[in-house]
Amino acid sequence: MAKIKHNNFIDTVDEVLSGAKKEGVLHLYAEDKVLTGRTIQIKGKEMFHFGTTGYLGLEQDSRLKEAAIQAIRDYGTQFPLSKSYISHPLYYELESKIEQMYGIPPIITKNSTLGHLAIIPTLIRDEDAVIMDHQVHWSVQNACQLLKLRGIPVEMIRHSNLDMLEDKIKQLTTKCNKIWYMADGVYSMFGDYAPIPELLALTQKYTQLNLYFDDVHGMSWKGKNGTGFIFDAIKELPENCIVVSTLSKTFGASGATVFCKNQKLRDKIKNFGGPLTFSAQLEPASVAAAIASADIHLSPEITILQSALSEKIEYFKSALEKTALPMIALNSSPVFFLATATPLTGYKMVQRLFDEGFYVNLAIYPAVPIKNTGIRITLSRHNQKEEIKALVEAMEFHLPKALEESGNSLNKVKKAFGIDEIMLPTENVEKETVLKLQYETSIEKINKQNWNELLGKQSTFDWNGLCFLENAFANSDCPENNWDFHYYIIKDQSGIPVLATFFTYGLWKDDMLAPESISLQLEEKRKQNPLHLTSKVLGMGSLFTEGNHCYIDKTHPLAKEAITLLLEQVEIVYHKLNADMLVLRDFEEDEQWNRIFHNHGFLKINMPETGIIYNNEWNNIEQFSASLSSRSRKHFLKEVLPFEKAFDIVIRDNLTKEEVEQGYKLYENVKNNNHAINTFTYPIEVFKKMENHSQWEFILLYLKEEISNPLVGIMFCYKNREQTYVPALIGMNYDYAKEFQLYRQLLFQTIKRSRELNRSKIDFGFSATFEKKKLGATIIPKVAYIQARDNFSMELMGTLQNEDKKR
């Protein structure tokens, strides 16, 4: 019934990256006539290059260049044929040299992304299962989506959370043959490592556990023969471990390598591993460059190169440790991460470092959570100590200025990353002299008339409505129905309101706005654990209310400052409550607010559209019908009006105990039948409190033709004090829904009742907007802005996306 328009993940990513592109920090072009590795020219400015993933600088080695040039002369620019038929003349030599490096024959693929697509569907059997670290590289996660189509369990754990991993293993041991844990060796954003000793210990404890590592960022700069971080940590590859490495990045050429001990499995992957069979092979130039690099890796020179890079890494680390810069995972990898928390601070910092002559990478959503934006700095052997020192000095000088420009602070950055437990300041003295904040935890402490003038004209959150909600959702024994309320009114020095809003704190289902197919899967798991995949959310408005929860006087000269003050104050409560997510919801699209919220670390997502009837003013059915479009009029006269005579329609201010119980069962029918907007089921106590509240009334539909005259439909309606009528909840008996057009009839009776009460506006809310539009509702797009401590839930639900297609 409740068809809604869901948010598209690609739209969210596009908006974030487009914003970063406008700021001049992404999608840039190098302008150099000759690249050296040490510097790079962008927009006419030469900068020291601290953004490469060629950590040893081998891409500029003359031996690799000459080998590639000679291969083009000898063999052409490409060898356009699948390797299943024949490999070009240089392939055998490369495979032999890589085998000398590792002591294991390799599988060579075009790149690591195609490698994962070749390996994972071939490796994982239908009786197996996969557990992914939620920060494992996108290419691994993408390849695992193919497994879902075969019904293979694909689970996810929080980053390097070994307790969670062990719990997942225990759940899967009786259901699956092999369990594959997939992780990166060195993670590409923060530069942190997979916990190898602990993972190897788990394989001893659980013999079904196998390990699959993407080690492309650990290659060359670490290990004997430059074989990488994983091989350096495990020394010898066990049977239950597969490693994907690279011939590009630090290796200096192109392509990827796959290693496994099992010869039969290796042959199977090589014989029919999707892209290995059907994609073009590496170009002769790439293979020749890789051979030249392998010669270096097999020589004593590799330890000299590794030592030279290691010395610079230690020099950089030592300099950073003497500062107060908020660095994440400061270890011996060449990947460093400077935390900025908000995108705006990240933009300002990148721009400032560009101006100082240092090229660095912005790390932003979806690579990291939006509030974990930062600067990724990578070191290479090209970097010299003098520019490394200068970079540290520039970072130390410019970060305070970037924080100040963006309304941020070091304290807030540390809090966003959980670096330490510093309490945020409770007020901004400078802004308090301009704007006055009233913060309360009960609506009863706010002037009733003032609140209703600002936010009383819609939905169920006029002053009396909020009294009802506080009473209905306070001190509940069920954690999902126990809410805290937080009210904010911001005024200028003259006492004129600039902004007013309220938030509630409680549990939300993470899939509340996810596609229905995902919610259906999660509800199966919630039969054992009702709070599975739920989050503590501080959200604007409440799950019970819908509409514009935030009054902003956009014409006021301090409107932007009021928004900033609100965000600062809400963030204090957010951290104090240790909430998982902060949500600002039900805004209409506005470019100015988009920019402000994004720069403060919020992601914009599309909410379900809402339906509102304005100017509900007509004197008879003919006039109402005439107010509809010609197409909607035909629908009304054929699918709605004729069925009215099938019902006894009763309006009640009070319900009997039996009617409350019957109405609640009908509400449960709708709730259990509709997962398009997946919220918790409200307890019957909420409905009993409606019955005792003067502004609630009930539209009951009894079916005439049945002997028992059963109650088959009910609308739970709120009479807003400011002339708005709100059909907040609905209940139906689905045995009669289709035959008697029950849902449409309930909508029509709501419109009629609103007119009888002389209410000019109806807040129909979201879901089933197509049906509401046919009865005269205006459909309004809405957006929300969210900030989560990590991307785990979103990425976990991404692993469920294909389940519906499988069905």
From TrEMBL:
Q: What organism does this protein naturally occur in?
A: Flavobacterium sinopsychrotolerans
Question: What protein name is recorded for this chain?
Answer: 7-keto-8-aminopelargonate synthetase
Q: Which UniProt keywords apply?
A: Transferase
- Give a yes or no for keyword Transferase in this entry: yes
- The record places domain Aminotransferase class I/classII large at 47-394
Tagged with keyword Translocase: no
Which coenzyme or cofactor does it need?
pyridoxal 5'-phosphate
Q: Which Pfam families match?
A: Aminotran_1_2
Its Gene Ontology molecular function terms? pyridoxal phosphate binding; transferase activity
